[in-house]
Design goal:
Blueprint (H helix, E strand, L loop, with lengths): L1 H28 L6 H22 L6 H15 L2 H13 L3 H27 L2
């Protein structure tokens, strides 16, 4: 059990750092009121999670520790649903209803498609 907790914790640490670096890099390229960094991180995280789920379904390619490190830890630390929710609350509070609706709708639809796409790609080979 301790090995699993350590694996998840290390993955979460790495995912959080990658999330911050990715968002910072995107914000250096795009200046907008739309939270593009969080959006891209969430969709990319969903896609990676789909790939990992797809590979896991193909057999025992990863040990339990590695699977949890990558899915719960890395992808969980990388994606930012709490930040997503907070950004939407702020947009709604500030009256940016169109941006909030766009952000929520695109995130949900693109996230579902990214998970499905990742799983689909693992079945092609």
């Amino acid at each position: 059990m301790l090995r699993i907790l350590i694996a998840i914790g290390l993955g979460g640490c790495a995912g959080s750092i990658l999330r911050w670096l990715t968002s910072r890099w995107l914000s250096a390229w795009v200046v907008a009121s739309f939270p593009l960094g969080t959006f891209v991180v969430n969709i990319l995280g969903c896609f990676c999670l789909g790939l990992l789920y797809g590979w896991s379904e193909r057999g025992h390619l990863l040990s339990e520790e590695w699977r949890l490190f990558l899915t719960v830890g890395l992808c969980g630390g990388f994606t930012t649903f709490s930040t997503f929710a907070g950004e939407n609350v702020l947009m709604l509070r500030d009256g940016a209803f169109l941006y909030a609706a766009l952000y929520i709708g695109l995130s949900v639809v693109a996230g579902l498609l990214a998970v499905y796409g990742g799983m689909y790609l693992t079945k092609l080979s």
